[in-house]
Design brief:
Layout: H1 2-23, E1 30-39, E2 53-57, E3 63-69, E4 76-83, E5 86-92, E6 104-112, E7 121-125, E8 131-135, E9 141-144
């Protein structure tokens, strides 16, 4: 009898939870990204003629942000949030840390649980640096000048 009651409860719980899941849209769920920061450009991405930053999709379909500037105190993504087709990036460098005058690329790569939308465009808000529309496909990049 106990096994029957436990099985019935488990089936009821599964039915309730799957019903909730089917009625809720995960497309609009807010997902925090996992961020890694590396010196250099993403694999397969060429350096632009003139740009101070860029945002794109790498060959693994992850979002990346590239800044060109100081190697000792680069701008980098400190927080990334995906909600539907909109990505919000917090971009910072250390305010009281000295910066070198070299000009090197630093890449912040963001991965999101469940991945990016399969196709179409993303709206990427790059903090104080503006907002861009980005095609969701490997190799898509939008380069910007900070001026």
């Amino acid at each position: 009898m106990r096994i029957f009651v436990i099985a019935a409860l488990a089936l009821s719980f599964a039915a309730c939870s799957s019903g909730l899941g089917n009625n809720q849209s995960t497309d609009d769920a807010e997902v925090k990204g996992s961020i890694s920061v590396d010196r250099g450009l993403p694999h397969g991405v060429g350096q632009p003629d003139s740009a101070s930053m860029g945002v794109g999709i790498d060959e693994d379909l992850n979002l990346f942000f590239v800044s060109f500037g100081s190697s000792s105190n680069p701008y980098r993504v400190t927080e990334a949030t995906l909600e539907g087709r909109e990505v919000d990036l917090d971009i910072e460098n250390e305010a009281n840390k000295p910066a070198t005058t070299d000009f090197v690329p630093t890449t912040s790569t963001m991965t999101f649980a469940g991945g990016l939308p399969a196709d179409g465009t993303l709206t990427v808000d790059m903090d104080d640096f503006g907002t861009v529309e980005l095609q969701v496909k490997s190799g898509a990049v939008v380069w910007l000048d900070s001026e």
